[in-house]
Amino acid sequence: MSSxxxxxxxxxxxxxxxxxxxxxxxxxxxxxxVINSLRTHTHSIFRDLPEWLSPGDLLVFNNTRVIxxxxxxxxxTGAPVEILLLEEKEPLCWxxxxxxxxxxxxxxEIYFYLDNNDCSQDNFLVATVVDRDEETxxxxxxxxxxxxxxxxxxxxxxxQIPFPPYVTESKAxxxxxxxxxxxxxxxxxxxxxxxxxxxxxxxxxxxxxxNQAYITLHVGLGTFRPVDIENIKEHKMHQEWIELPExxxxxxxxxxxxxxxxxxVGTTVVRTLEGAAKAAEMEGKQGLIPxxxxxxxxxxxxxxxxxxxxxITNFHxxxxxxxxxxxxxxxxxxxxxLYQIAIEEKYRFYSFGDGMLILL
Length: 360
Hints:
Elements: E1 31-35, E2 41-45, H1 49-52, E3 58-62, E4 64-66, E5 70-75, E6 80-90, E7 93-99, E8 109-113, E9 124-133, E10 138-143, H2 148-158, E11 184-187, H3 199-207, E12 211-217, H4 221-224, E13 240-244, H5 246-257, E14 262-265, H6 267-282, E15 291-295, E16 310-314, H7 321-330, H8 332-344, E17 355-359
Parallel strand pairs: 1-17, 3-12, 3-14, 4-11, 14-16
Antiparallel strand pairs: 1-2, 5-6, 5-8, 6-7, 7-10, 8-9, 9-10, 12-13, 13-15, 16-17
Helix pairs in contact: 7-8
């Protein structure tokens, strides 16, 4: 079997001090490692992104918004519990990871209080465990509120933005874990390649004739769930909800017709565009079409690209599906070489870290 299909081939050592705990301020002061098809690389700064793109290119962004998905509550017995909302299965019913899991039997009620000394109805949110989810080990929670508007109001009051587990000493504000163009709530993690953009940078890109379009992928378990099987071809991705609107499809077609490049801002955009294209192909339809459904696409070396011509991304965890996706663009060995260069140059890694621009 090719090494490209072995989980152990995607391992590397990262000195812990290179895991970024705080974002750069301003956001676009982060570093940018630029890779092109000539197998060369250049060290740059993210604010200089317009210099590496051409008029007529199209940047596609993910406009999802991170929700305050981490909730702390109590059972009726008074036992403390922790909830991480993962995915809305239906109105007011959510798949969630729970701690401690053994205590969450079907029928259990959890109470989330804004103020433990005030137990009035306006001050708390109640959820009932209605089922188990064998795939994730999580629970399905049904929230007892009158409307979605009330639910979201209480989630904003009671919940916390969940930083990644490797961000342990951050002083970042919750707003720094949102892209400046975040609009549609539903993600439990940020599409971190977009965290580098500022209003000024978007304006500079526009002035150069570099166009912008948006998709939505609510980042969930499918993005950050670890690969835990040595033969990566046997790994099954958890589904994530995506939306590719008609206006973005038209911009992509226009860009390609005019000889421009479609650059995905983040792996979530890649999964949306390529997932939608794959779905259309499986239905026997020609070309990219608007799409609103779930995708479980898993991209690794050997993948045949359908839509994108480049990628802006951060540096990813060892053995992750994201590392495999980027390897499908430029090759696993080449990518790991670049990671070693980035480590030697003291780049900052992961969610609050530096970025890469890959042009095919």
